[in-house]
Write a structure and sequence with these properties.
Elements lengths: L3 E5 L2 E5 L1 H5 L2 E6 L23 H15 L6 E2 L9 E3 L20 E4 L5 E6 L3 E7 L4 E7 L1 H5 L2 H12 L8 E4 L12 H10 L7 E2 L7 E2 L1 H11 L7 E3 L24 E7 L1
Parallel strand pairs: 4-7, 5-6, 10-13
Antiparallel strand pairs: 1-2, 2-3, 3-14, 6-9, 7-14, 8-9, 8-10, 11-12
């Protein structure tokens, strides 16, 4: 259950070969290989930031060409840090050419159809993916701290299970790159909020040097997946901090809000 670094056409991204072998391509992009100028250099995939829209379009075209996808079979969302989940079919794809026709009020997407590229975008928030290798069902979710607090990963599993019945122990899950506990300092109110909601939450925080709490969003989501019945050995974590890895990822915190967006993309193949 290991992520693998790939370099193609000047792009650098991470994939899960064992998922590909079972019928799903999952891609965690980096900031490398695109056309954008600072501070959005170079492979910014987000239309909703103050980057040149033509550069964003060229970046998306280059990436999708490398992946063998079609713009008409691409779906993204207007992420709002909520719990909304959307089933994607060939009839309701959208969002490739602009933010306006992306799915409204949605932080999770799933599909049962081959060849549809689901896409979610990030700059410190945590990318999540859920795959059923037998029933060929794939979903992605955007888990900032608000999404984690609301258990967006669990909401995605529930929505997928409402569409196709399955045992959660049969699922494979993946966690992409997000801000790590090394850099994710939070205040006491944040710590208390999580500890009131989740019994295990204390384990999601450390206090380096005895100081302010630091949040481990990866551990939180792995624990929440496990509570849904996913086997821990079936959860693949990339374990790269977006705030630390300035050469690879955009970071909202590190770059004080003026930055691009990398993506998690997935398709049944």
């Amino acid at each position: 259950m290991m992520w693998e670094k790939t370099e193609k056409d000047g792009l650098i991204y991470y994939t899960l070969p064992h998922w590909r072998e079972r019928g799903a391509e999952l891609v965690m992009t980096t900031r490398v290989g695109g056309f954008g100028k600072a501070p959005y250099d170079t492979l910014n995939l987000g239309y909703h930031v103050e980057d040149d829209k033509k550069d964003v379009g060229k970046n998306r075209e280059k990436l999708l060409a490398a992946l063998g996808g079609e713009p008409s079979r691409f779906a993204s969302a207007k992420q709002v840090h909520g719990r909304g989940i959307r089933k994607i079919t060939a009839e309701n794809c959208g969002g490739f050419f602009g933010h306006e026709d992306a799915a409204d009020d949605t932080d999770g997407l799933f599909t049962l159809e081959k060849g549809i590229w689901l896409a979610t975008f990030y700059a410190d928030c945590l990318p999540l993916a859920v795959f059923h290798p037998e029933k060929k069902l794939l979903g992605l979710a955007h888990a900032g701290w608000k999404g984690t607090y609301r258990d967006i990963g669990g909401a995605l599993i529930e929505a997928m299970a409402a569409e196709v019945s399955f045992d959660p122990s049969e699922l494979w899950c993946a966690v992409g790159a997000g801000i790590g506990p090394c850099c994710y300092e939070v205040d006491e109110a944040f710590h208390e909020r999580f500890c009131r909601r989740y019994e295990k939450a204390e384990a999601w925080f450390t206090r380096p040097g005895g100081g302010k709490p630091h949040f481990d969003n990866v551990r939180a989501n792995v624990d929440l997946f496990a509570e849904k019945g996913v086997k821990r050995e079936n959860i693949a974590c990339l374990d790269l901090c977006t705030c630390c890895c300035e050469d690879l990822f955009f970071s909202y915190r590190r770059d004080k809000g003026k930055t691009g967006r990398h993506g998690l993309l997935g398709a049944l193949i």
